[in-house]
Model the fold of this input.
Amino acid sequence: MKDHIFTLTFIALLLLAAAKLTGQVTTQQQMMSRGNNDALILELPSAQPKLVENLWEDYLKDNYKVRTSKTKKVRTGELSSLNFELPGVSAGSKVDMYSQVREVGNGSELMVWIATPDGYVSPALDRGQYLEAEKMLMRFALTVSREQIADDVDSQEDRLKDLEKELDRLRKDKERAEKDIVDAQQLIAEREAEIQQNLLDQETKQREIETQMRVVEQVKTQLKEY
Done:
């Protein structure tokens, strides 16, 4: 039964994740540390900025072997990934990539500026380079989505465990209540037996009193005769 519930929950999460994965890439000029330049903008609805930033740094390191760090003397949170090869974009040379994650509504935007020897990647500069850069960002969007699904699964599993604990507690409460009822019934039976015995003892005692009263009267009569 638990496996069935978990399977349904997991399917629901997959559908939810599919609905969340509406990330799309657009391009426009944005201000950055090197001026106003063409940027690729990846929309990530429902993804928190801190999660996106952490995943982005790991994604670049794992896939392109480049170290990402805060851009020096910039307070906007801009990141720099310098002097690395970006297949399909760098074409035998190397690029410098600048990026920034910002909160937008309930989600995030990842802005990326890719500096090539010929300029910043955009559809106008080189359509082929732009499409490759766009694919790279969409692959990252899938990484974000997978992480969100994993977080959702962990959250739902924790909720399931909490529900199971609550059910166990309710079962134990029921067992304690049933035991209390049995104990109470046993006590009532014992008290009823004690009451019946008490009534019998009262009758016996009453007879003893009546007998003793007659004895007293007899003794008093004898005393008067003397």
Observations:
- The mean pLDDT is 89.
- Residues 88 and 132 are 6 Å apart (CA to CA).
- The radius of gyration is 42 Å.
